[in-house]
Design brief:
By secondary structure, this protein is mainly alpha-helical. The protein has five helices and two strands; from the N terminus they run αβαβααα.
């Protein structure tokens, strides 16, 4: 099944979460709040491999950015129907003079 899943239906299943303060956790919390859904039983882990193992063994589900989920082709992914989490990515670099390669890269993404 590749049909979109509603967060309210996912909330009833055991869920793999990441620690409070992690960007993934904050965005997933926001999405569930917007969907007016409260997650029930949770596993809290601090690494993707443990999350993937719990999911692979049928113990839980999770919400991850597509780029992270792609690291685990043995797991099935489904799109989220509404209140889709949005991850904002920020480039950081040192202050001051930058090497030419970094300036060139920044020029490409600006």
């Amino acid at each position: 099944h590749d049909e979109p899943v509603r967060l309210s239906s996912v909330a009833r299943r055991p869920f793999v979460d990441f620690p409070a303060g992690w960007a993934v956790r904050e965005e997933v919390d926001r999405a569930f709040h917007a969907a007016k859904a409260t997650r029930g039983r949770r596993f809290e882990v601090n690494d993707l491999l443990t999350a993937a193992d719990l999911i692979e063994h049928g113990l839980a589900v999770s919400v991850l950015p597509r780029s992270l989920a792609a690291r685990f082709p043995r797991l099935h992914t489904r799109p989220i129907a509404a209140h889709v989490p949005r991850w904002r990515v920020t480039l950081i670099h040192r202050k001051g003079d930058l090497p030419p390669q970094v300036r060139a890269f920044l020029g490409l993404i600006h």
